[in-house]
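seq/struct pair 1
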Amino acid sequence: MKSKLQKPGTRKSNMLTHKQLEKKLLRRPGVKAEVERLEQEEGGLLDALLKARYGAGLTQAQVAERMGTHAPAVARLERALATGKHSPSIATLRSYVKACGKKLVLRVA
């Protein structure tokens, strides 16, 4: 009995790559507007966090130590905000700004 398995790379797939799917979805006005809104919101948050860290003269490793975590976790937090891939919890944000000698203040407008 012959196997129906094909060699890798010989079968054409209908599945889109991540980049192709992203490009396709961003053509939708509603999706594009929401992505832009999130980027603007989280970009402002990232700016505020970095301003706090730089203002305190701290490295990611120093913030991490004060938070009770490791430098890669702080790097992931900052990168997640830069890329919009993840929204950190309020507890995490509070811990980060406290490590920088600041207080987290939330406002609903």
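seq/struct pair 2
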Amino acid sequence: MHALAHVLARFPEEGSPVRRLYLKNAYFRSVCEDFALANASLRRFEARPDANLRPEIGEYREILDELERELRWFLETADVD
């Protein structure tokens, strides 16, 4: 899944601002890419047979929470016109 698609799936109500920011702000794109990579890594760890023993799952959830807060901050403060 493309980085933009991950963010749109998480913030479906913010589709237009997400797309505009993704096109015009390199840092926002970078955060979107980090969000997608962390999401994919979390899913891989959750799919492992020893998932309940993997500390990475909690770590990736924390990373995703931080990235989500950063994405939300962008959406709340950025001028997307």
